[in-house]
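Thread: Modeling a multi-component assembly for a lab meeting

Hi all, long-time lurker, first post. My supervisor asked me to bring a structural picture of a complex we are working on to next week's group meeting, and I have zero experience with this. I have the sequence lines for every component (734 residues in total). Could someone generate the structure of the whole assembly? Inputs are pasted exactly as I received them:
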Amino acid sequence: MLPLMLLLIMSCNTDETQTVFNFSELTLQEEFDTDGAPNSDVWGFDIGTGSNGWGNNELQYYTDRTENVQVQNGVLLISAQREDFEGSSYTSARLLTKNKFEQKYGRFEARMRLPYGQGIWPAFWMLGADIDENPWPAAGEIDIMEVRGQAPSVLIGSVHGPGYSGGSAISKEYTLPNDRLDTGFHIFGIEWGPEYVNFYVDDVLYNQITPEDVTGDWVFDKPFYLLMNLAVGGTFVGAPNEETVFPQTMLVDYVRVYKYMNENQN
Amino acid sequence: MKKKKYIDIRFSLLSAFIFAVFASCERDVSDEVEFATFPANGDVFIDGFSSGLDYFPFVDAGADPEAFSVVTDDVFSGTSAIRFDVPSFGNGFLGATFNTTANRDLSGFDALTFYAKASQAATIDAVGFGISGPTNNKFLVTGNNIGVSTRWEKYVVPIPDPSKLTNETGLFFLGEGASFEGDEGGYVLWFDEVKFEKLGTIAQPTPAIFNGRDLVQQTFNGANILINDLTQTFNLASGVNQTVSAAPSYFTFTSSNTDVAQVNELGEISVVGSGTAMITASIAGVKANGSLAVTSTGDIVSAPTPQFPESEVISLFSNQYTDVPVDTFRADFGNTEISEITVNGDDFKFYSNLNFVGIQFQNPTIDATEKGSLFLDIYTNDTATGNFQIQVRDRGTNGQLDTDIFTGQPTEDDAETRLNLTPAQLPAGQWITVEVPLTGSLTNQKNNLAQIVFVGDIDFLLDNVYFR
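Re: Modeling a multi-component assembly
Sure thing. I ran the full set together rather than chain by chain. Output:
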């Protein structure tokens, strides 16, 4: 078996130039090792309810209070609480690196343990850094991880852009075999380069999106910034029900970003 | 069949090979010697019974022994499936367990799973595992009211704590039947691919006792209270929270004050001294919702000893007499709690959180034609705010109690008498012997007495209940 495989690999390699990438040089490393608020040099917050529940009819009010976001014992905790607050019935937190950290291409990953339950919507995602001048969806969005709490084994990775946003996003669901997202830590990542975004969970590559897959302009050749949030309710997941347990907490062990390096160009 | 045999041979050759390899490098017996365990075989019915498995219908309880068959014409996968013909109302019910003579270690699995469908949309009364005569169903698990459709679908009955299941024989049971005229019956159920699996997606355990309620109960030394409504709930991969009834032995029970109350592994609370104890529980380290704060006010004063000779009475409950059979001292309506109290061989019933509660004796009914009154002894520490009522019911000849569920009045051929005691007639802190004359419509119909009902708002001790 082994000689045959070797033969096959070699045969593919004869006259094409193989492009080899590695992602070994860290450009962002947030390990959440200091108790308290997350590092303000990297992380800012969206506060409030945005317009129209952040565009999705979400039910939570985002704050930067310790009830909703804090680092404890080497882990960042983003907690959704059921409480009356500023006219909303839930509170939670949304962290973002806008104007603090942005990057074009590379490997972006986070190790997280996710919450669960009807109406619970954790996400680890990116937006085009030019969004203020070039409004969504033209700015582009890459969803590294989204989960509907009522489907605790199913991960969703997507890209949004002009002509393929919201319900028409280019998206793929991946079901963890014999496992769930709320019982242990998993690594959610993308490897992103010119003309592709590869989606990973742990060591599984479950999707690749290229310009041929999108039904509009490819808007992923510019810097993006990172977001992490825990939404409650909204059109994507529906409202929590009487069985949804609160508080729900998203645990983030680390966020790491690696530089994109094309070895052939070095 | 041939193919299977071939595979078996290959496996045994393989294991012989592995054994040879391991044997060659074996050293002295290490400190990590493991005890022999039963085989970790999770199969129940795939395309036939798994090894050692047999079918045991609950014939003694009235189950139809002919309801079960193995069919090849309608299967989910493979070559055969289980078919049950659910009898129509009045023709018995479907009830059976599949037990193995070759005990299994199920501790590596997290759920019993199966595919099922029905000839019509139906709700199966009970499906589960853990029926075992020798252990008195120590690790029984029941999924109640499982809805099945006319399509093959997969069902999951999670194991409350797999680590308990190292030596199991009861692998699968079900009970379904038409319990009243018009209830679903006379249809067909199919099961296939019945097996224990390690799904890896059974998570977020939420055990509960007393249906998750925090109860308070006043009682006396010597009381025995059974912890009930024991459940375990898991979130499944489908997002559904699946609750199963779990036997007490899955739980660890705790009393905050063992000088007041102690709990055994069957969930039986023994009240041993004055004071208050908080009773809580857990499964595999996860605290259960629900609790009982039990307070004992101390020792009980014995009731007066009945003076009538045994030959003159029909006794339902008295240490002085031989009692006739009683179906229940807490007929299942209302929220009243009951605890059994035994002090120095003297038995009492203690009713608390009373609104209304019934004593039922229909197997057989009591013929009190020759008797004039019901006697009973009552003791309360409370002062009633209104009348305390005692009802005595004759069910007539139609074989059932007929009650207007809105008024509580007898209907059809039932007859009844009622006695009201004013608060002044039930002073707190002393035993009162109450005589209820069998008058009213009972005067000429008391040969099928079947029920006694108490209505009121006091907690009370009951002793010496008899007709004379």
